[in-house]
Design brief:
294 residues; 13% strand; globular; Rossmann fold; nine-stranded mixed β-sheet
């Protein structure tokens, strides 16, 4: 198939390269200039509209404003190849997902929300979990492509917003797990229990699972090189707050982790992995967040 791809960051480039490995012709565009050697086998196109002249196009941009700027404000949907299916793998707001569904229907394009679970190394190995929602025919049209970039596709129904709400909730719960481990360390280190021994205990009894295994190791090693940057995690917590507000609900644990991430970003640690907020909790570091981080 001819595949367009917009957004060749660490996640997007890994996904696009796996599509090439699966035998697809990939034409890609990125907002900033990238070196061709970094994406062998991918044809780099000069404008984003070129990526929409394909059988399907994937979008992996950082946030709602980026999607509005690159795709909606530029009128790319109206310029797209007829019959194209648009797959947005970014973590975006529930509100934008609903808006995009309507806009795609107006121009008779397929639309699938397909945010992913996994870090860049997971994307590179083609082992992402993909949360997919959209009209059945649109999902069916791109399901073979999803199989090239992920180990499992979780079909969540025909309402695209379901996939986005699920992804936001997943990231919210991971942030809560990170904070829970940090607060556990605060208590146990106060009596001299080494954090590695504490984590061995919880992983072997109450809290086995990938999130606990991965982030307990980072907290133990005090290693916070980015897999998922704190500034992007803060964006996702804001999306979760917005989603709660839309249904008239305040989520107290969400507010706590949102504030922790806001503190990390305010402290100049936005480029670090989001687990850096655990280090700040353990070391009892707080930063005022009244400067617009809310």
């Amino acid at each position: 198939m001819q595949i367009g791809f917009i957004g060749l960051g660490s996640m997007g480039s890994a996904m696009a390269l796996n599509l090439v490995k699966a035998g697809h012709e990939v034409r890609a565009w990125n907002r900033s200039r990238i070196v061709q050697d970094r994406v062998p086998g991918i044809t780099l196109v000069p404008v984003a509209a070129d990526a929409f002249q394909a059988d399907a196009v994937f979008t992996m941009l950082s946030d709602d404003p980026a999607i509005r700027e690159v795709i909606l404000d530029a009128g790319l949907l109206a310029k797209a190849r007829p019959g194209l299916t648009h797959v947005i793998t970014s973590t975006i707001s529930v509100a934008l997902a609903r808006e995009l569904e309507v806009l795609h229907e107006k121009v008779a394009l397929g639309y699938v929300s397909a945010p992913v679970l996994g870090r860049p190394n997971v994307a590179a190995s083609g082992q992402l979990n993909i949360l997919a929602a959209g009209k059945a025919d649109a999902v069916a049209a791109i399901e073979p492509l999803l199989a090239s970039i992920g180990k499992r596709v979780w079909k969540l129904g025909e309402d695209p917003a379901r996939a986005n709400a699920a992804k936001i909730a997943c990231n919210m719960m991971i942030a809560m797990a990170i904070e829970a481990m940090a607060e556990g360390v605060v208590l146990t280190e106060s009596v001299g229990l080494d954090r590695a021994d504490f984590f061995e205990l919880i992983l072997g009894t109450l809290f086995s699972g990938r999130a606990y295994e991965s982030y307990s190791a980072q907290i133990t090693d005090r290693s916070f090189e980015p897999g998922f940057k704190a500034k992007l995690a803060l964006k996702d917590m804001r999306l979760a707050v917005e989603a709660g507000n839309q249904i008239g609900r305040t989520l107290p644990m969400l507010e706590a982790v949102r504030e922790g991430l806001a503190n990390a970003v305010s402290a100049g640690l936005g480029e670090k992995d989001w687990s850096i907020m655990a280090d700040m909790t353990v070391r009892n570091i707080a930063t005022a967040t009244d400067s617009g981080e809310r």
